Amino acid sequence: MDIRVQSVKFDADVKLLDFVEKKVAKVEKFYEDVISAEVTLTLLPDNANKGVKIRVKTPGKDLYVEKNANTFEDAIVDCVDVLKGQLVKIKEQKRGV
User: Fold this and answer.
1) Residue 60 maps to which CATH number?
2) What is the domain count for the chain?
């Protein structure tokens, strides 16, 4: 699975990029047909000022999740949890469960 990370208006450090890669790579466990993932990290002006958007491409359908939190790590974990549920649903529908 190809994972692309883009940071808007700041330079993400290696530690954050490694965390993103590690967490987002886990979505492939829940649905093996995942083609790629695009992660966008953004600094926001409000209290929960870290925004994360993840688009996961699968055959026939793209999934999109957006979360804001106090840290990028929290937002990434939240996004991956939501994606996990969506991918499991798609996998079950594909199997006809």
Assistant:
1) 3.30.160.100
2) 1
Q: Who's near 83: CB < 8 A, 6+ residues apart?
A: 27, 30, 54, 56, 63, 65
What's the pTM? 0.91
Distance CA 9, CA 79 (A): 21
**pLDDT tens across the length of the chain (97 residues):** 899 999 998 899 999 999 999 999 999 998 888 999 999 999 988 777 899 999 999 988 899 999 999 999 999 999 999 999 999 998 888 777 5
Helices marked H in 51-97? 72-95
C-alpha to C-alpha distance for 1 and 21, rounded to whole angstroms: 11
